[in-house]
Amino acid sequence: MPPAPHNFKRKQKVPKIDVERYLRRIKYEAPSHPTLGYLKKLHKHHLLSIPFENLDIHWHREIILDIDKIYNKVIVNKRGGFCYELNGLFYSLLLNLGFKCYLISARVFNEKGTQGSDYDHMALIVDIDNVKYLADVGFGELFLEPKKLTPDILQVDYTKYFKLLSLPNDEFILTSSADCSEFKKEYIFIDTIKQFIEFMPRCKWHQTSEESHFYQKKICSIATPDGRVSLTDIKLIETVKGKRTETLLLNSDDFNAKLRELFRIGHN
Predict the structure, then answer these.
(1) Which of 62, 94, 169, 216 has the largest CB neighbor count within 10 A?
(2) What is the pTM of this model?
(3) Is it the case that residue 144 has pLDDT exceeding 70?
(4) 135 by DSSP, 3-state: which?
């Protein structure tokens, strides 16, 4: 059965942001009214314009879940961020544009298939004409366009395939595949409204715990029209039309040079 619709009559507090400047940052115009077509375009343009990155953790700059601070970092200073920042900001944009949406918490599967903790990841549910869609501009490499919150149907996203699996306890598992044969579990979630402040403890954990993969290594990654460009502590990864190449970095200076060249981000 599809999940029951949420009651949107309770007025949501809409953070005040400069919508026009935000839209210029993602190279898109304001929609005339909230439709699925506009949501898809906003989602894709966001991923093509704003990188997923955790650099502040390694530059010893505290990440605070405050929309004004995140807006100044990502939109004004043209940086990126990780899930709490990017999806929190995108949520604010959608609310300002008149979309019906809310935040959800997800537990991410690691390479061994083990689930993470609650609030490990932030994503969004957007309601368009009483049909729900999973939106996520803060997971790195995932889907370019939102996916319908309907279990057990195959959903194509350019060169990847996605499927949502439903569990008896009202949970969903997002899975992905490159070849439509073997599917990888990405994360698990319940369709329940969460508040922005509820993610603060886990956000702090990811910045300070040696167990967090964000604490362990740097990452800066952005979608491109033909694939993706990613920079880690030790290598540059470029994917163009399905072909992946890796280039080892010489040192930290090489990292910083490529960060400025490819992402227009400088350590200052």
Answers:
(1) 94
(2) 0.93
(3) yes
(4) strand
